From TrEMBL:
<keyword id="KW-0862">Zinc</keyword>
<dbReference type="InterPro" id="IPR007527">
    <property type="entry name" value="Znf_SWIM"/>
</dbReference>
<protein>
    <submittedName>
        <fullName>SWIM zinc finger domain-containing protein</fullName>
    </submittedName>
</protein>
<keyword id="KW-0863">Zinc-finger</keyword>
<feature type="compositionally biased region" description="Basic and acidic residues">
    <location>
        <begin position="111"/>
        <end position="124"/>
    </location>
</feature>
<feature type="domain" description="SWIM-type">
    <location>
        <begin position="55"/>
        <end position="91"/>
    </location>
</feature>
<dbReference type="Pfam" id="PF04434">
    <property type="entry name" value="SWIM"/>
</dbReference>
<keyword id="KW-0479">Metal-binding</keyword>
<feature type="region of interest" description="Disordered">
    <location>
        <begin position="111"/>
        <end position="131"/>
    </location>
</feature>
<dbReference type="GO" id="GO:0008270">
    <property type="term" value="F:zinc ion binding"/>
</dbReference>
């Protein structure tokens, strides 16, 4: 059975309230029985509810990477607080007596086992999963609409640039807002996001020099999107199969939501991967009208740093579980990779976990880039692509952290090259480094987020986490 730890249980919870309520059930003595099956693969118990009939939560680990959580309560949350309480009791070492699995639960297990056996048989026989048929006629109409939308977007940007940024007033800002809505009719979600971002920059006020610099950079992004989007869509129309681009991020910019079956068909999947989360942050992205939960993970067999991203639209945020930091090693049966360059987005359907060990820490440190010159070259190549992630992340080896006469912090590699540390995103982390003991800032690995500042042309680097010989110190979590 999977190792049941509190961190792993927390990762299953639909929200923080469910975590608290699960613990409270144990503290208040609501459980009257804790049982496990003879093979120790099923946990089940009895928990007092609001009515006369108690609830019967259970957790079935016959398939460790896909545990099945059940409960007789009316809650729509899976797992509910009763199942979470059952799991917390097990992880806390509460005594579980060995009992026969109830008939109703045994029948459900048998059905689930048969379904999994059928899937395994089909996989062994090489039976290809049913792929969704593409309505080529509808797709061509969508592509034509997108091309029309790009023409409209191009006319708008040319018009705004000809007028000059210094002359833009409330009327032009209103026109941009109207075009944001219009881009939705052309199936151009990416254009909506970028126009909304442009509107936010131009309407923010403040120092005009800074505003114009950011606006000029945003116009460059929109121009690149128009150029690359148009070339991609025209090439797609000439392809009889209307095939997706599995190499670049252009499909996502044009609004395509990748399905796991599509990633698998493109061979963008790795079996049996182990991931360790190095940093996690949640933020409000007003240009997307969504909250974003973003984790940075290292794939242990390759040293690649991937990102996991969950978007929670404003309208549905209350109904979606907010992701959180994960402090153990995630064992993933199948790791799906999205098209892209550095810090590719990844997804997985299920996972098991194990505790983080010192040998894992040592392995992470071995992957840290030793030369800042080579690291910066890689980052600059990423930033040359206007449609790439503007904030790439790398793990760097730090020989030592030094401070100049003005109190600014720099990290130095073994060759003596230095890189200045500055805060990029809203939360400050640079100042936190100053509070760490001096001996913990030598011979370390540091996860760094890069950013290009348009006003000065400088490359900024913000520390996210520090990996010493014994632990991962998260400056954001």
């Amino acid at each position: 059975m999977v190792e049941i730890t509190e961190t792993w249980i927390d990762s299953l919870a639909p929200n923080s309230a469910a975590i608290k309520n699960g613990h409270d059930l144990i503290k208040k003595g609501k459980f009257t029985a804790f049982h496990q099956s003879e093979d120790e693969l099923v946990l089940f118990g009895i928990c007092a509810g609001s009515g006369k009939t108690p609830y019967t939560p259970s957790a079935d680990f016959v398939f460790p990477d896909k545990p099945v959580m059940r409960c007789s309560c009316p809650s729509r949350q899976i797992p509910c607080k009763h199942v979470l309480g059952l799991l917390y009791a097990y992880s806390d070492g509460k005594p579980f007596s060995t009992e026969v699995v109830p008939d109703e639960l045994a029948a459900k297990r048998e059905k689930a086992e048969k379904r999994e056996e059928k899937k395994a048989k089909e996989a062994a026989e090489g039976t290809a999963p049913k792929t969704k048929k593409v309505n080529k006629s509808a797709l061509k109409k969508k592509i034509m609409a997108q091309l029309q939308g790009l023409d409209v977007l191009e006319k708008l940007t040319f018009s705004l640039i000809r007028r000059g940024l210094g002359t833009l007033d409330a009327k032009e800002l209103k026109i941009i807002q109207e075009h944001v809505k219009q881009m939705g009719s052309f199936y151009l979600n990416g254009a909506q996001i970028q126009l909304r971002k442009l509107h936010m920059i131009l309407s923010a006020g403040g120092n005009p020099e800074y505003t114009y610099s950011f606006a000029a950079e945003q116009f460059a992004v929109i121009h690149a999107f128009i150029k690359k989007g148009r070339a991609h869509l025209n090439a797609k129309l000439e392809d009889p199969e209307l095939a997706l681009d599995h190499e670049s991020t252009i499909e996502e910019w044009l609004g395509h939501a990748w399905q796991l079956s599509e990633l698998k068909e493109a061979r963008l999947v790795s079996p049996e991967a182990e991931l360790i989360q190095l940093s996690f942050l949640s933020y409000d992205d007003a240009s997307r009208l969504e909250f974003v939960d973003n984790g940075y993970w290292m794939q242990m067999d390759s040293g690649e740093i991937h990102s996991t991203v969950q978007y929670r639209p404003y309208k549905a945020a209350k109904l979606m579980r907010e992701e959180d930091s994960f402090f153990e090693v995630a064992r993933v049966p199948a790791l799906y990779r999205y098209p892209g360059d550095m810090n590719r987005r990844v997804r997985y359907e299920s996972f098991t976990s194990r505790p983080l060990e010192e040998q894992d820490i040592a392995q992470i440190r071995q992957y840290a880039a030793g030369s800042y010159i080579e690291a910066i070259k890689k980052v600059k190549n990423q930033l040359k692509n206007p449609l790439g992630d503007p904030n790439p992340v790398m793990l760097l080896h730090v020989d030592k952290v030094v401070t100049d006469e003005e109190g600014r912090l720099f990290i130095a590699d073994a060759g003596g090259d230095t890189l200045g540390l500055q805060d990029v995103i809203g939360d400050t982390t640079v100042q936190l480094v100053k509070y760490l003991p001096e001996d913990s800032l030598k011979d370390i690995a540091m996860l760094v987020l890069f950013d290009h500042q348009p006003q000065s042309g400088q490359l900024r680097a913000q520390p996210l986490s520090i990996v010493n010989k014994h632990e991962i110190i998260r400056l954001l979590y």
